[in-house]
Amino acid sequence: MGGLRKGSLSSRYNVALDIAVVIVVAVLSIVVNIVLAVFIGVAIAIALFVLRMSRSVIQRTYRCSTIHSRTSRTEQERAFLERAGDAIW
Questions:
Q1: Which of 45, 47, 52 lies closest to 20 in space, CA to CA?
Q2: pLDDT for position 19
Q3: Is the pTM of this model over 0.85?
């Protein structure tokens, strides 16, 4: 359990959602019916999977006029990048 506390906020959020699904299925299996609880749990798990996979993997985008690379460039190349840096993603 110690590793769970060290994770990022989003991974802790995902673990909490997974635990919530387990709790919901457990409660539904006691209250309603185990077969119905399993079907509802699978539906919730599929919905969570689709939601997680629909998020973009790109975390940040930069413009080349504001963030410079560490590559050594000639004076001509630097001047060109200062002029045309907005066009480069």
A1: 45
A2: 94
A3: no
